[in-house]
Automatic annotation (TrEMBL):
Organism: Pseudonocardia lutea
Protein name: SDR family NAD(P)-dependent oxidoreductase
Pfam families on file: adh_short_C2
GO MF annotation terms: oxidoreductase activity
Matching CDD domains: SDR_c (cd05233)
Top EC category: oxidoreductase
Length: 247
């Protein structure tokens, strides 16, 4: 019962799923959160069966402030603590042109990629400060440093997430460490909609390919382990060498 409690948003599939599995493998009690509660509970059941840990699936739309509060409240009620938060949920809907980006789409992208992570990090960070400390990992994107016209609201939100990481590291230190992982192109459910041109873009990376979902795990493991005890306010690029601009 002394094992750490980890909350992962966007945790039911893709990179989030692999992060949840690794945390469970390391003995953490895992809260899987995403919009689809059933998918979260399905993965939580798998974690309980395979790794013998406590796991809970909770439906949460991180773009809604009240859902973020409800998630944190439920975790604290269930476990009495939060030790790790991974803000992994994100979205980047397609649009025909910048002029056709509507207010609803823009607000939704900012809400899921920036507003929600802010609220979750603040609530979790305050709970961690009252306890034994903890680690917060935000999942950004190389779009934050190399924004493209076709994903500009998303890139803007992720750039804000990078800035938020630095500010929260200052706000919650010394007991809470806040860091960021900045992925490049990864093969997940989202990539199923990519065309040949998008996959060809991945070949321009130094490693000549896009990443697999499980390849994000090592970075998150480092940032949530004692090995990174002197690391906070860091932005770790995991992109196969695609983005040349520094974080």
């Amino acid at each position: 019962m002394d094992s750490k409690v980890a909350v992962v948003t966007g945790g039911s599939r893709g990179m989030g799923r692999e992060i949840c599995r690794d945390l469970a493998r390391r003995g953490h009690r895992v809260v899987v959160a995403s919009r689809k509660a059933e998918a979260c509970e399905t993965l939580a059941a798998e974690l309980r069966e395979e790794f013998g840990v406590q796991a809970l699936g909770i439906g949460c739309h991180v773009g809604r402030w009240q859902d973020c509060d409800a998630l944190i409240d439920r975790v604290l009620e269930e476990f009495g603590r939060i030790d790790v938060l991974v803000n992994n949920a994100g979205m980047s809907p397609l649009y025909p042109s910048l002029g056709e980006v509507g207010e609803e789409l823009f607000d939704k992208v900012i809400g899921v990629n920036l507003k929600g992570p802010f609220r979750l990090a603040v609530r979790a960070g305050e709970a961690m400060q009252k306890g034994e400390g903890g680690q917060i990992v935000n999942v950004s994107s190389i779009a934050a440093v190399q924004p493209q016209p076709g994903e500009l609201p998303y890139a803007t939100a992720k750039a804000g997430l990078n800035a938020m990481t630095l500010g929260l590291a200052r706000a919650f230190g010394p007991t809470v460490r806040v860091n960021c992982v900045m992925p490049g192109m990864f093969r997940t459910d989202i990539s199923k909609a990519w065309d040949d041109e998008m996959f060809a873009k991945g070949e321009t990376a130094a490693l000549g390919r896009i990443g697999e979902a499980e390849e994000i795990v090592g970075a998150v493991r480092y940032l949530t382990s004692p090995d990174s005890s002197f690391t906070t306010g860091a932005i770790l690029k995991v992109d196969g060498g695609m983005a040349w601009a520094p974080a």
